[in-house]
Amino acid sequence: MWNSIPICTSEQARLADQKAICDYGIPSLVLMERAALGCVERMQSHIHPNDTGLIVCGPGNNGADGLAIARLLSERGFFVKIVLPDSNQMSSDEKVQLHIVQKLAIEACPLSACSLEPLLHSCDYIVDAIFGSGLSRAIHGQWYETIAAINASGRPVFSIDIPSGLDGNTGIAQGIAVKAAHTFALDCVKWGEISPEGAPYCGMLHRVPIGIPSVLHEKEAKWLSKSSLCQKIPKRSPFQHKGAFGRALMIGGSPQMPGAVSMASSACFHSGIGLLSVFVPDSIQTILQTRSSLIMTIGAEASKDGFSLTAYQQLQPILSRFDVLCIGNGMGKSPSTDALLQTALSSDATVVIDADAIASAGQHPFWLDREAPVILTPHIKEMSDLTGLSMQEIKTRPYKAVTSFCAAHPNCVLVLKSCATIIGYRNQLSVLFSPNSALSKGGSGDVLAGIVTGLSGWIKDPFLAAQFGVLVHSMAAKQAANPVSFTALDLIQNLDFVFEQFIK
Ligand SMILES: NC(=O)C1=CN([C@@H]2O[C@H](COP(=O)(O)OP(=O)(O)OC[C@H]3O[C@@H](n4cnc5c(N)ncnc54)[C@H](O)[C@@H]3O)[C@@H](O)[C@H]2O)[C@@H](O)CC1
Ligand SMILES: [K+]
User: Fold this and answer.
1) Residues with CB under 5 A from ligand 2 (ion)
2) How high is the ipTM of this complex?
3) Which of 18, 108, 202, 301 is the most exposed place for a label (fewest CB within 10 A)?
4) pLDDT at 480
5) In angstroms, what is the C-alpha Rg of the chain?
6) Closest ligand 1 atom to the C-alpha of 136?
7) Mean pLDDT (whole number) for 290-296
8) Which residues pair with 8 in a beta bridge?
């Protein structure tokens, strides 16, 4: 079950372990036993009864997990061998685990005294229990050589808690890291495991609960899934008129990019909005009208590149007609964007800010501090424009960037798009990890903005609308028969099938 799974930094994971032990009195060895049992149960569907396993143990409690796993596998009839760290390096729990293992006549050999290559080549799979959340420096010497040999062996690797060598926060290999086929994230998923750098090292990610009280993770980011949202989506009454499902206005478009606002509008209409109008430069009004007979178009004064500098004067008087505005798609970096954004934000409507309007919001952050909700949907580059943080800073610690933005702008919902999309609101973070190259295409961001706008019309909670929009968008992409030929237009086509799973 991926429902309510916490996503933590290494520090948060360690703190939860400590609090469970010290404040709740759960013995460390009890947590460890649950961890080992959970890993073995999951491993059993991937190994054969006659396989030989090599359990490579490091000097801390990750190594102690490895020894407990070796014992449980052996008790269940699997043949295992163990590689040990030097005994003077072992943690106290590891010494306890070793003491038990020694009584069971399991073949164990210290790393410094064994010949690793033949062991690696005679085994069928490897358990990587070298380092977990306690990795504190770059890997050198014997551990570097051990990890290099594990990776070169070609054997499937089960990594315990995290592939050894991976930084739990950033997912960056600290010199070297194990390439796992399966990773068993103990208690919580670590941010580094779902980062673009770290995820490829993890192989298939499994979460193993170990009995840490969930109250200890109350404040941490949560995994977004269908089951976590299903119960929260409001019912759509069949007796309501169209106005009850929201009146939206999409502001965007330019002669160079009429398609972006067209796709966003289409996605909005397919996401439950009652009424939709589009405010575009009058030079592209006919194109929009030809593309969809569902959408009412309002033509604003145009310049060569898009909206004219005075177009905002035509926006002002009509704003009170709408509950939700979406601004930015295909607008281009036109000088008129600032005035249109400021005007949109002066309304009482929920405002979704995407694409070219995000940089403008970054230049005027105080405009965001209004009473009605704002939903921003930047990708990494746009997040950099919005916050002034470098792309590198955002990539390595995206949760930090989202947390500080949301703390500074308490009425804003922020959707940071990446292979792990983070949705932040006040002190809450929700994370959708569903990497899919079908979404790495022009237009998929416009479709997301349209979906979120459509949902905001009838789901009055902006955080819920944003989370639901991100999930629906990803589920629509999962329907791709092949990511190569899939386009943003296919996303819109698949929405009907996806909504069917939530709303009958
Ligand atoms: N009771 C607990 O605390 C629990 C801990 N658990 C396991 O324990 C792990 C955390 O245990 P630890 O805090 O002991 O940390 P680790 O087992 O990750 O490693 C810490 C040890 O590695 C050494 N070390 C760190 N970086 C190194 C490097 N680059 N080169 C060489 N040595 C290095 C440290 O000096 C220390 O001896 C978790 O990842 C999880 O697997 C689980 O069993 C659940 C319960
Ligand atoms: K590990």
Assistant:
1) 128, 159-160, 164
2) 0.98
3) 18
4) 81
5) 26
6) 26
7) 81
8) 190
Q: Amino acid identity of 297?
A: T
pLDDT of the residue at 194: 97
CA contacts within 13 A on the Cβ side of 14: 13
What's the rounded Cα separation, in Å, for the pair 428 and 147? 37
Query: Which residue pairs, CB below 8 angstroms and at least 24 apart, start in 481-488?
Result: 483/436, 483/437, 483/438, 486/438, 486/441, 487/441, 487/443, 488/263, 488/441, 488/442, 488/443, 488/444, 488/446, 488/447
Ligand 1 atom nearest to 14, measured from its CA: 3
Instruction: Assess if CATH 3.40.1190.20 describes domain 227-232+241-500.
Output: yes
If you average pLDDT over every residue of the chain, what do you get? Answer: 94
Domain range annotation of the chain: 6-219, 227-232+241-500
| Residue 187 CA to ligand 1 centre (angstroms) | 15
Rounded distance from Cα 54 to ligand 2 centre (Å):
14
Contact between 329 and 488 (Cβ < 8 Å)? no
pTM (two decimals): 0.94
Fold for domain 6-219? Answer: Rossmann fold (3.40.50)
Tell me the per-residue pLDDT of 230-264, one tens digit each, with 9 for 90 and over.
Answer: 888 888 777 777 777 899 999 999 999 888 999 99
- Atom number of ligand 1 nearest to Cα 160: 41
